Amino acid sequence: MAVGMKRKRTDEAVDVAVPLPQKVAKSPLNRTILKESVSVPEDMEPQLQRIAASNRTLFEKKVWNLLCQIPRGHVSTYALLSAHIGSSPRAVGNALRRNPFAPEVPCHRVVATGGTLGGFKGKWPKDGEGITIDEKRKLLRGEGVKIDDKGRVLGTPWAAFV
């Protein structure tokens, strides 16, 4: 039997060879994020370079690259980002919590699905308030994002990821 094959039992007395999944060798190329044709504002190009040059995980780099696509004055949600990359909102939130390039790589532009501000700097407020949420609110308002008196972002979340 060839290397990389295993036997598979069947109902009959005949064995069938099934190919085993092949492992992909880890190389520097596999460890860096390959630049896709991404539509980002020109002012984000230096941030994309910083992300690519970092020694962070591929998943974190994917999430942070998506952040660079969200235009100033808009927000997206943890769920929309996670759906785009085939992950979970919690995993996206964890990657945002570890963003060393904030606020230039704008993790503050990601909010909870219901429009609440969600967490910021790895902390979720108890009653929608707290110094980190105040900072997130200030950053968003400075970019022109409208927030109602209950602390919810107004408007439709941005979802045009490429």
Please write out the topology.
Blueprint: E1 5-8, E2 16-19, H1 28-31, H2 45-53, H3 58-67, E3 76-77, H4 78-85, H5 89-97, E4 110-111, H6 131-142
Parallel strand pairs: 3-4
Antiparallel strand pairs: 1-2
Helix pairs in contact: 4-5
Structural summary, described in words:
The chain has 162 residues and is mainly alpha-helical. The protein has helices at 28-31, 45-53, 58-67, 78-85, 89-97, 131-142; strands at residues 5-8, 16-19, 76-77, 110-111. The protein has a two-stranded antiparallel sheet. It has a two-stranded parallel sheet with strand order 3-4. Helix 4 crosses helix 5 (89-97).
Strand order of the largest sheet: 1-2
The unreliable regions are 14-38
**Between the first and last Cα atoms, what is the distance in angstroms?**
44 Å
Shape: globular
Please give the radius of gyration in angstroms.
21 Å
